[in-house]
TrEMBL record:
The keyword Signal applies. Pfam families: DUF2282. This is DUF2282 domain-containing protein. Keywords: Signal. InterPro entries: DUF2282_membr (IPR018740). Residues 1-23 form the signal peptide.
Length: 83
């Protein structure tokens, strides 16, 4: 395989992966207050950190995790960040 073919294959793989990720995102929602320490999906709502996996406490109200749509409140989570 030459460089050109490798670049085309990589570009196609990226496009396909992006399409799958977007479809999966529509089936998920942010759920606050359900992430265990070190298992949050992204930045804290209050700005205390800016990256995934940096939560220090279990079930922190400002920490969130993606969950399947319709399940957040069933597991005692909140769909919006605390004020």
């Amino acid at each position: 395989m030459n460089k050109r073919q490798a670049l085309i294959a990589a570009a196609l793989a990226t496009v396909c992966a992006a399409g799958v990720a977007n479809a999966a995102d529509k089936e998920k929602e942010k759920c606050y207050g359900v992430a265990k320490a070190g298992q949050n999906d992204c930045a804290a709502a209050n700005g205390s950190h800016s990256c995934a996996g940096q939560s220090k406490t279990d079930m922190g109200a400002n920490e969130w995790k993606y969950v399947a749509k319709g399940t957040c409140e069933k597991v005692s989570g909140k769909l919006s960040a605390p004020k």
